[in-house]
Amino acid sequence: MERLRSGEPIFEGVHGYEDTVVPQIVNALLARHDFILLGLRGQAKSRILRQIANLLDDEVPILAGSEINDDPFHPISKQGRVIVEEHGDDAPIEWVHRDQRFVEKLATPDVTIADIIGDVDPIKAARGGHILADELTIHFGLLPRANRGIFAINEIPDLSGKIQVGLFNVLQEGDVQVKGYPIRLPLDVLMVFTANPEDYTARGKIITPLKDRIGSEIRTHYPTEIDTGIQVTRQEAWVQREGPEVIVPEVVEQVIERIAFRARDDKRIDQRSGVSQRMPITVLESVVSNAERRAVLLNEEQAVPRVSDIYASLPAITGKMELEYEGELHGHDKIARELIASASHATFEERAGGADVEEIVEYFEEGGALQLGTDASASACIQGFELVPGLMDLIEQTGLASPDATDGERVAACELVLEALVAERRVSRSSGGGYRRTPHGGGQGEGPASGGGAFDPFGGLELG
Questions:
Q1: How far is it, in rounded angstroms, from Cα 184 to Cα 30?
Q2: The pLDDT value given to residue 454
Q3: Number of compact structural domains in the chain
Q4: pLDDT in the model for residue 116
Q5: What secondary structure does DSSP assign to 318-347, as a single string?
Q6: So what's the pLDDT on residue 463?
């Protein structure tokens, strides 16, 4: 409530959920509902769960030595009741920080009821002289130890059915059997879960009685706007390195983000598995690494990624896609390359849609060609691009590169224009990074250009 009044963000570093997921979580918390976050991979479910602990009081008092955070005024364990009976108002207390009141467990098939609820500890019985039926012999599991706090379970469908039964029983009725004898544990616990819809059929499911007792089912989603995706990617990606200064052009960020957006709409990619937000994050890191490697080789002070660096980062794309049958026929690499070209075209259309590119296309149709080495310096690439009539003027007039842009940023803008033409099949791109006229029949062929001149940044202008 204090955060709502002050306008502070409920969850730090979580973007795109301000009008959807966050209000639903707030309502669930105010209603004291246990809830589940249901969504595909890479949708910040675990991050949200871990930040809920930040909404707790900084510290709370417990009876000193209590395993389950007994409230000094209302102890629920026999150990706590014995302490109060012996010491009364002088019972010793301890203060527990909110971080210690958050317990998280990744659900796996090998989790046992003893892990979650507890089990008899024969050593406790022997040392204390208790019979095994005495509650003092119990070694409590994770759920009781989360008393007066939060108990989070990631990937709840992976938890076996009998463990799920134990969860809803202790939460709803407040009783449970440990090794055959009943005890009552009226726990004060917020239960929060995560699940992937794919897991409901692939690996397991939430049993109906437990699902019925979960107060709110909140569905997460991927960013709906490119700018939101870029904000998340900038936040998470490791970009600032200790080597050359890294400058990531805005157009490169947009292309990388659009690759994920395009992949989420591609019928050849399994949308039940989803395309994680981790894809653009890892792609950006890989792209920066390729630019960093080039800067080190050329002894440059700045590492400026280009669109061609995205092609060098294919492993960061292909590993994040689960293909349908039709996609398997095409192959990961081909689909990834098509996504890059499509994302480049969409970015160009948004930034410079309607710009006159006929002069550029005419240059290639008349036999002109560019062979841009992936490790060529920015200044060498600029020399090549200056041979293409209208290209440098276009990027300045449309704002793809500002008047004070560095050579590296202008190279990125020029490559964006050419990649957009590749997507339109008006120019052909070779696997080695060269641009030439489209072969007869269209497509991204690799046939040599005939006539005209071909520019090689390592060898200058080659006359045809």
A1: 26
A2: 44
A3: 2
A4: 86
A5: HTT--B-HHHHHH-HHHHHHHHHHHHHHHH
A6: 30
Residues 355 and 390 in one domain: yes
| CA–CA separation, 352 and 397 (whole Å) | 9
Domain that holds residue 452: 226-463
The dihedral over CA atoms of 330, 335, 338, 340, expressed in degrees to the nearest 10, equals -170
Please give the Cα distance from 78 to 144 (Å, whole number).
Answer: 13
pLDDT recorded at residue 443: 45
Q: Is the pTM of this model over 0.90?
A: no
Establish how many alpha carbons lie within 13 A of residue 264's alpha carbon, considering only the half-sphere containing its beta carbon: 22
What pLDDT band is residue 131 in, cutting at 50, 70 and 90?
low
Instruction: Report residue 301: phi and psi, to 5°.
Output: -85, -20
187-202: string of b/e by CB count within 10 Å (b at 16+)? Answer: bebbbbbbbbebbeee
Where is pLDDT greater, at 179 or 196? 196
Kindly state whether residues 159 and 293 are assigned to the same domain: no
Taking Cα atoms as reference points, which of 420, 421, 236 lies closest to residue 344? Answer: 420
Residue 64 is encoded by which pair of tokens? 């000193």
Same domain, 121 and 169: yes
Q: Which phi and psi (to 5°) does residue 31 adopt?
A: -85, 0
Segments in 31-184 forming alpha helices (H): 45-51, 78-87, 113-116, 122-128, 142-145, 161-172
Between residues 90 and 430, which one has the greater pLDDT?
90
Residue 314 has pLDDT above 80, yes or no: yes
| CB-based contacts of 389, cutoff 8 Å, min separation 6 | 359, 360, 362, 363
53 lies in the same domain as 132: yes
Sign of the Cα pseudo-torsion (236, 238, 240, 242, in order): positive
Tell me how many degrees the CA angle 372-434-361 measures, rounded to the nearest 5: 110
User: Is the same domain home to 127 and 180?
Assistant: yes
Q: What average pLDDT is seen over the chain?
A: 85
The rounded distance, in Å, linking the Cα atoms of 59 and 94 is 10
> Looking at the structure, do residues 400 and 346 belong to the same domain, yes or no?
yes
